[in-house]
Amino acid sequence: MGGGPPGDLYLRVKLEPHPRFRANGHDLQTEVPLAPWEAALGTTVEVDTLDGTVNLKIPPGTQSGQKLRLRGKGLPRNGDGQRQGDLYALVKIVVPKELDPKEKELFSEMAEVSNFDPRQV
């Protein structure tokens, strides 16, 4: 049997992968897809948490790969006196695969007027 004193029960717990959340200790991470204009201009998006859905404010100029913290929305702690873990929303900027003619025109116009060069950041 086990190596503990009689009457003690030891359990080994393994977390299975979740389709929406990735655990890191008591913290969780989830991916938040944004359109390029949402990241550039800022917006508010709904994010699923363990307790339900919350609104997350995306500040203007948010970058792909940036993590936004939702304090206290991670995994609970059991009796150790520490606060609950956090949920990190990992931003993923998603570009449309196909553009209708108006969208293509607007993206082309932006390319002409913008001085932004992502390779010079």
Quick synopsis:
The protein has helices spanning 36-41, 101-113, and strands spanning 22-24, 27-34, 43-49, 52-58, 67-70, 87-93. The protein has 121 residues and is α+β, with helices and mostly antiparallel strands.
Task: Give structural notes.
This protein is α+β, with helices and mostly antiparallel strands and 121 residues long. The chain has a single domain, classed as HSP40/DNAj peptide-binding domain. It is 16% helix and 30% strand. The chain has helices at 36-41, 101-113; strands at 22-24, 27-34, 43-49, 52-58, 67-70, 87-93. The strands form two sheets. A four-stranded mixed sheet has the order 1-2-6-5. A two-stranded antiparallel ribbon has the order 3-4. It is elongated and about 75 Å long. The termini are far apart.
Total E-strand runs:
6
Beta-strand content: 25-35%
CA radius of gyration is 21 Å
The SSE order reads EEHEEEEH
**Total tally of structural domains:** 1
CATH fold-level assignment:
HSP40/DNAj peptide-binding domain
Find the CATH superfamily: Urease metallochaperone UreE, N-terminal domain
Mean pLDDT: 90
User: What is the terminal-to-terminal distance?
Assistant: 60 Å
Helix content: 10-25%
Low-confidence stretches: none
Taking the sheet with the most strands, its summary is: 4 strands, mixed
Estimate the global geometry from the Cα principal axes: elongated
Please name the CATH architecture. Answer: Sandwich
Report strand order across the widest sheet. 1-2-6-5
| Total helical elements | 2
The CATH C-level class name: Mainly Beta
Structural class: alpha+beta
